[in-house]
């Protein structure tokens, strides 16, 4: 996939520059040790034709909290980054896009703290997906990082070695995606998405603590409130998940995507008839509708 071309513009430390000409330091602490934090954000063309960055404030607030959790200096306000993001969308002629801010460290081959951090924001085309193809998911042989060894609630670059290993393993075995357990063997999350299952008209999802508290997960819970769907946050095992009526992943990139099977056990409910499907449709409406109070650019 081409993430950029010769004329793509990125936001780099206060300036709008060509991605093809931008540089970074090969002696950076982020490159060598995975010591960086990032976000995955999406923008959508709304029903009335404007561009809307979905939950922009929440994402930039999490970026800040991730940086602080890793003791990285952080001096940006959400509003200035949102403004910069709308500007790169506009300069690159993008409406339906994936947006990738990353906060990274200067040259530093030691483990010592830094006096400054840098920021880069890139964006590339990504259409509304809401996949119709249901996923075949397998239990990963990799567990999520132990929260006693990592700041698991932070979206830190280094954590994603774990996601890459799990996702590559699942694909090498012929599955679409992996599901990872936590260090105690309870279901945690996917490599880049949170998980819900449906049983007898109710949804269940793992509690925060051993997972990345997803912004889409929070949106799904808001939608459940509106639809009067009961949701319980509690620990559960892969065996319990296999007894579910249906299941789905949710995340900024994945949106809401149903599962066909888990460890080769096919779910009994037809996706069309599940709560997950109703939530998927409500999510689509939410991301493409101009909500009150959200920043929007014509
Ligand atoms: N868990 C992990 C490990 C992730 O990488 C993501 C994607 N950021 C999520 C969950 C879902 O988070 P969000 O809904 O905020 O994109």
Strand content of the residues, in percent? Answer: 25-35%
Structural classification: alpha+beta
Return the domain count.
2
Mean pLDDT over all positions: 96
Cα-atom radius of gyration: 19 Å
Q: What hetero molecules are in the model? A: 4'-deoxy-4'-aminopyridoxal-5'-phosphate
* Name given to the CATH homologous superfamily of the largest domain: D-amino Acid Aminotransferase, subunit A, domain 2
Q: What overall form do the CA principal axes indicate?
A: globular
Tally of helical segments: 7
State the total count of DSSP E strands: 17
Tell me, what is the CATH class of the largest domain? Alpha Beta
Please outline the major beta sheet: 9 strands, mixed
Helix content: 25-40%
Task: Using the 3D structure, state the CATH architecture of the largest domain.
Answer: Alpha-Beta Barrel
CATH overall fold name of the largest domain: D-amino Acid Aminotransferase, Chain A, domain 2
What's the helix-strand series?
EEHEEEHHEEEHEEEEHEHEEEHE
Q: How far is it from the N-terminal to the C-terminal residue, by CA?
A: 28 Å
Oligomer class: single chain
> What are the segments in which pLDDT stays under 50 over at least 5 consecutive residues?
none
């Amino acid at each position: 996939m081409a993430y950029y071309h010769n004329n793509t513009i990125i936001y780099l430390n206060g300036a709008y520059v060509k991605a093809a000409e931008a540089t970074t330091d090969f002696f950076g602490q982020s490159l060598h040790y995975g010591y960086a934090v990032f976000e995955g954000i999406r923008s959508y063309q709304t029903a009335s034709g404007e561009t809307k960055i979905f939950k922009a404030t929440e994402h930039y607030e999490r970026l800040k909290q991730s940086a602080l959790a890793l003791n990285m200096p952080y001096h940006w306000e959400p509003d200035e980054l949102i403004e910069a993001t709308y500007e790169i969308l506009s300069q690159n002629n993008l409406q339906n896009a994936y947006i990738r801010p990353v906060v990274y460290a200067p040259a530093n081959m030691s483990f010592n703290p830094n006096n400054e951090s840098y920021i880069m924001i890139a964006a590339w085309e990504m259409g509304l997906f809401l996949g119709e193809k249901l996923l075949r998911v397998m239990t990963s042989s990799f567990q999520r990082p132990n929260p006693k060894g990592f700041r698991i609630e932070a979206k830190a670059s280094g954590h994603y070695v774990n996601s890459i290993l799990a996702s590559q393993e699942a694909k090498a075995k012929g599955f679409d995606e992996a599901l990872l357990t936590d260090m105690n063997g309870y279901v945690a999350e996917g490599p880049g998405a949170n998980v819900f299952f449906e049983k007898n008209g109710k949804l269940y999802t793992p509690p925060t603590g051993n997972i990345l508290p997803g912004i889409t997960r929070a949106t799904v819970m808001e939608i459940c409130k509106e639809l009067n769907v009961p949701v319980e946050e509690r620990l559960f095992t892969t065996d319990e998940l296999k007894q579910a009526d249906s299941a789905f992943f949710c995340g900024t990139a994945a949106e809401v995507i149903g599962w066909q099977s888990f460890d080769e056990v096919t779910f009994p409910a037809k996706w069309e008839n599940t709560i997950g499907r109703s939530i998927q449709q409500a999510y689509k409406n939410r991301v493409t509708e101009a909500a009150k109070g959200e920043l929007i650019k014509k």
